[in-house]
Amino acid sequence: MALNAKNLNEEEFFFGHKACPGCGGSLALRIALKVLGERSVAVIPAGCMSAVSFNFPQLCFSNNAIISTFAGTASMLTGIEAGLRAQGITDFQAVGLAGDGGTADIGIQALSGAIDRNDNILYICYDNEAYMNTGMQKSSLTPYGATTTTTPDGRVIHGNLRPKKNMFEIIAAHDIPYAATASIGYINDFMNKVEKASKIKGTKYIHVIAPCHIGWGIKPDITVDIAKEIVDCGLWYLAEYENGEYTLNRRPKEFSDVGEYLRRQGRFKHLTDDDIELVKQSRDRKWEFINKNFKTTG
Amino acid sequence: MQKGLSFQGNRNGGIVMAKKFLSGNEAFAEGIRLAKPLVISAYPITPQTTVVERLSEMVADGDLKSEFIHVESEHSALSCAIGASAVGARTFTATSSQGLLYMAECLTYAAGGRFPIVMMNANRSTALPWNIYGDQRDSISQLDSGWIQAYAENAQESLDLALMSYYVAEHKNVSTPCMVNLDGFVLTHTYEVVDVPDVEQADAFLPPFETENKIDFDNPKNLAFSAGPDQNYIFKYNEHIGVINAKDVIKEAEEKFAKIFGREYTGLIETYKTEDADYIIITLGSVAGLVKEAADNLREEGIKAGVLRIRYLRPFPNEEIAEAVKNAKGIAVLEKDISFGNVGTVYTNVNSALRKNDVNIPTSNYIGGLGGKNISCREVEDIYIELKDDRFGIHFLGIGEK
Known about the structure:
By secondary structure, chain A is α/β, with parallel strands linked by helices. Chain A is built from eleven helices and eleven strands. Chain A is globular, with a radius of gyration of 18 Å. The relative contact order of chain A is 0.13.
């Protein structure tokens, strides 16, 4: 039976932390750990989630958890998995919970190595589209046009000029056993992907959009809404990669307005109509690729 | 398949010694085989490669039951080892030079987390200029990372240190990672006859790795946390005490080792004819053999020369060095290291040891062997002559006094 709010584990594993009210990342972690349960060993690199939860003596995971070096989420997962297995312990899930910078920038080498070895680990990237812990600097998952503190709206350059790195397909190109995209705006889809991944042997990767309301310039009570809207307007999508095939899990009948999605956020407030048109065109090119290459279930 | 010749030695006092013709790296690998780490993670770099090649052969042949992880970088090698150690598995990694520097972030991480990982470092020059040959600037640059640092003189000591390192690192009073340094090529690739203990002896020596500093499914833990200004210094002080405690545990390990294997070691330092020596050269690593030879030559000429070999740079043998050289007329530190803008770091440490122990004798620093430059017996003999002639100072072998 599919997981939902009614049958989800009532036990909490991530609580008492100092994350901002309306934090998308902490919701992703909370839900993932409720799905994975007490036999999960969480590896969290430097970043928001470790900064808010791992301050001795206030330690906020009730399952086993450890902070890794920023670049070392996947390599530490590898060591944990191998070390436990070498002692004959196999009923556990080593799970990485890393942000977009920790995954797509500084951690991509170790992640690629772990997938290449097909280590039996689950890696979850909670993507808030910038280095939020250090005060919102650009990462390679910051989308085109967004202002961050290192891609400001200047007199000459207006925000981030590069598109978001395509981590999902980069991961899939390793021929990983399972990869998925998700959003905390579609939480049932996310929790079921976590559960599905936990039952697959080998390396699993889930990339979940988890907005940071401070960094995105939105009110804290619309974090989940905006995470839903990014999917509805087609700038993100819910998909899986398995057995060498891409599957689209949700196909919006028609896209909601990209301009409206962007205009709601402080980080995009400088965008012109032409800029928004560019974002739309880039979305449409992406969906041409999806329509051509992804199977559809949703 | 074993490289080189291999034969069973004489039954000597109940000890069966298998004599093998091994390089320093291969000898170290034999020691690691006997220590049975559950996880080995390593990335290749000259001149470390043959130790991990040998270990991967042992794993492939079933002679060693370890998870051999082919990591994608040195950073990952040590990060992986930290993960494995954090679940209570004995771990091993090996590196050299640029690789050691690339994993530097993980060095302090392993030490601060009190994960007793053992690493072999093949001492090699650091770029630029690129150079694959031996000097000790790589490991000495990491003296403050919180690791125990040992320096082997020969292949036998390499094997023995591989075993003893786990005993020391994993001891509950220490719980600190240990780096064993072998001079690149001169030791890592030079073949010697080595006594290889059997498995039963090794098992009698080295207890299984037991620690409470690991994840626990019955009593879940949050490891590798942040500690703010109100607590941080306490963790750091405890880390320091862990390294200091290694002094006693090294002694304990060597006593037990001698009983089981019949080979004796002398703690943080080894002295050679220092008791009556007027002039002593302090050095470390494989060059010590040459320095002993030079000392013998000078003694034939009536000059009372001695040698002090530092076996452990951390914990540093402050009292041991001061005690051993206090009656000398002058000493020189010969090292393959320079802290640019100052002097050799071993020299700095030795001077500090003398000052703290009120030993007031003149000292010199000889910086040599950088980038693998050969140090000749004649050059070492000249050091003794210069000490005798009261020509103290900072000298660069091949360049002169500066």
